[in-house]
Amino acid sequence: MRLKTPSFWYRKSIGGFLISALLWPLSLLYLLGHTFNQLTKKQYAADIPVICVGNLTAGGSGKTPTAIALMKTALSQDTVTAPCFLSRGYGGALKGPVFVDPKKQDFQDIGDESLLLVKHAPVIVSADRRTGAKMAQKHGKDLIIMDDGLQNRSLKKTLSLTVIDGQFGFGNHLLLPAGPLRETLSAGFKKSDAFILIGDDLCNVLPRLPAGKPVLRARLIVPEEWIADTKASYIAFSGIAQPEKFRTTIHSKNLSLCGWHAFADHYNFTDEDLKKIDDEAVAKNARLLTTEKDAARLPSDFTFKAPLDIMPVRIEWENEDALYALLAEKLNK
Q1: N-term to C-term CA, the chain
Q2: How far apart (Å, rounded) are the C-alpha atoms in residues 92 and 83?
């Protein structure tokens, strides 16, 4: 069963503090297990560059749209002609290594993120990143962009980029499960070559980042070509790590909400779930709205009676020249 992102990770309250304190012993166990894994895992060095797009917290920080935007920028480099994504296929049953084929696989096989990535470049799903990298080499790929994997030591990285959500930062700065951190900040900062801050720095993250390492700025936007019905009422539903970000985006587009349904991250929508939401939309004469990532998990055989709109998002770089320079430095060695 998938769980929603705990609010006490990001909101300061006495109740949240007490919950974190009770969970702190489990965080120590998590730290021990993580440290043991980091010290004992053997690394494989691929013959082609490996760029990792990772983060330090559990839940959505914008890694997948950042990986897509990075792919587009990398393709502008003269040295890159046959890149691919490498994903563990979170939420999917296939362990791989396997190339993603949307005609043969769905999100239950290879996860929802892989279905978004494959629209932009070939995707290899592999629970073992080393075997995934070997497959990429075997098929003549000249660059690997890993969607997630900063904490995975099995594959040596040419460049590690850490994505930070400016709205949520590092939460309460505690390790799982007392907080959202996948590893200590000091350990994460050490292995990061550069940082990508998405949105405004509302959590005062920038002063905490190590001096001398590049910070790239970006924003998560809805493409201008996406047009919604501003005269309609919408019922929105989503199963992402931070559904409130979706809700904020909806309001920023001046859309009227008459219903809201938030599910756990990577939620597997059932026909019963969708029928309930669809019936509500029909009763209220409303349109349905969800994210592109959620749409990848909708059952292909379910038919909505109400109109369904799918909101895409993409990353817009604020200092793309700095990214060009960083990629040129790492890829042309």
Answers
A1: 45
A2: 23
Q: Say how many C-beta atoms besides its own lie within 10 A of residue 191's C-beta.
A: 17
Query: Any alpha helices (H) in the chain, and if so which ranges?
Result: 14-40, 63-74, 107-110, 112-117, 129-138, 185-191, 243-252, 271-283, 292-295, 320-331
Q: Are 330 and 214 in contact (CB under 8 A)?
A: no
Label residue 100 exposed, middle or buried (CB < 10 Å: 0-12, 13-18, 19+): buried
pLDDT exceeds 70 at position 186: yes
pLDDT digits (tens, 9 = 90+) for 54-80: 999 997 789 999 999 999 999 988 888
CA separation for the pair 288, 292 (Å, rounded): 13
Query: For the ranges 6-10, 38-42, 64-68, which has the lowest average pLDDT?
Result: 38-42
DSSP string, 48-82: S-EEEEE-SBSS-SSHHHHHHHHHHHHTTSTT-SS
Look up residue 44 and give its DSSP letter. Answer: B
The helix or strand, by DSSP H or E, that contains position 291, with its residue range, turns out to be: strand 287-291
b/e per residue, 148-187, with b = 16+ CB within 10 A? Answer: bbbbbbbbebbbbbbbbbbbbbbbbebbbbbbbbbbbeeb
270 Cβ contact partners less than 8 Å away, ≥ 6 residues apart:
none
What are the angstrom distances between the C-alpha of 223 and each of 8, 141, 249, 256, 272?
32, 30, 12, 19, 32
Q: What is the pLDDT of residues 140-161, one digit of tens each?
A: 999 999 999 999 999 999 999 9
Whether 84 has a pLDDT exceeding 80, the answer reads yes
| Per-residue pLDDT reduced to its tens digit, 249-287 | 999 999 999 999 999 999 999 999 999 999 999 999 999
**Dist. CA 140–CA 142, nearest whole Å:** 6
Collapsing DSSP to helix, strand or coil, 94 comes out as: coil
**Residues 6 or more apart whose Cβ sits within 8 Å of residue 250:** 234, 236, 257, 289, 311
